[in-house]
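Q: Give me the 3D complex with iron/sulfur cluster.
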Amino acid sequence: MLNDLTWNPLAAHARVLDALGTLGTIDERMARVGVSRRAFLQFCSSLMIAAPFGLAITDKKTPEDVAAGLGKVIRPPVIWLAFQDCTGCTETLLRTSHPDLGDLILNVISLEYHETLMAGSGMQAQQALSEAVERYSGKYICVIEGSIPTRDKGVYMKLAGRPAMDVLAEVGGQAAAVIAIGSCASWGGIPSADPDPTGAVGVADLLPNKTIINLPGCPPNPYTLLGVVLQYADSGTLPEMDAEKRPKFAYDRDIHEHCPRRAHFDAGHFVKQYGDEGHREGWCLYEMGCKGPDTHAGCSTRHFNEIPDVWPIGIGAPCIGCTEKSIAFRVPMFKVVQIHTLAAPPSTYAPINAPQGIISPLATGVVGLAAGALAGAGYIASRKFSTVKDDESTPGSSITAGKGQPGGESQSDRRSDTGPDSGPGPGSKNQP
Ligand code: FSX
Ligand code: SF4
Ligand code: F3S
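A: Here is the predicted complex, encoded as structure tokens.
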């Protein structure tokens, strides 16, 4: 719990700055640039959907309440540095389906420096950075995107002739709060994948004495960033975090528990290879290596770009566990994870079409026999579920008999990583 932070609340500093007329409130800014009340309310609603609870500015409020509260907030100055990254974190902030939203976001915060978005370059950009750091020293929020190379004294990335890690030390060191956006900034991400040629690390490794909040995801949801920034600007507090320094309001959910394909997992309907019938039908991607059962993120309910179903599993791609330090870019993409949540795997379920013909017509013991038949069928199903060869006979498979089973060589067949950790997954733990 970091709500009792002792470091200087940005809100107090921002109010001093406001007295100098430098930043102004969000309401003032909206009025000045002509953002409609309707657009701002839509923005507040989206923020509430992203953070239904756990964020002070949206907790138990209506969109009108949120708008009224946010309107009084002094626009927080933000300095955004980009290191080893793909710029996806910036893109996710700006690529919204509503053309106005990108503008709106830039009016809610005061983006003082951002290499990708600013018009200036070279010396002009360097000057803008120096001025922003000096002007808002100790009061700005520093957002870091991308990992930082440390091997060979950081020679693999330089800004204006200085290693990225020196720039981070200076700019991050003077910030009121540091936010690591994306998996790269949180703990190295893609650049740190084996063989990690640049010695890529996340922000926390280089600023050990700074309070840092990680917003992993490749990329993360932009509303998570905005929620954190706005709560901090409003009250000088950060939302409650988990052990990985992730805000709980955005990372408390297990993808698998809230996945729209979960019913297929429970019924044993699995995609075997891209483009097969199961894939076209929207079946579970578990056997394609989906890391949803081990991944905490809100993607299943908070989609990207304001477009329904725009998230990896929504478009038919397995979750790669991009918000988990030990999974994405560490565990091979098609490797099947073990199921270790409370959720019962399909092998423990009776098949939906339990065979009826074997029940004795004798009246006595009918109930017991039926239970026995189901348990037996469940056992058979579990045996079949646990082996790739027999997967075509998983409990739900006969439901679609006649429609054509997803067949042929499965993705699992083609996995080369068939070591002890690679499966077989749900069925294995419950084998009799
Ligand atoms: Fe990393 Fe950000 Fe992945 Fe890319 O820039 S978190 S590679 S989506 O976008 O840093
Ligand atoms: Fe969804 Fe993946 Fe779980 Fe299947 S394994 S239900 S696709 S999260
Ligand atoms: Fe990442 Fe998985 Fe969501 S790959 S974007 S955590 S569905």
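A quick observation: The beta strands are 77-82, 110-114, 141-145, 148-149, 158-159, 162-163, 177-181, 200-201, 212-215.
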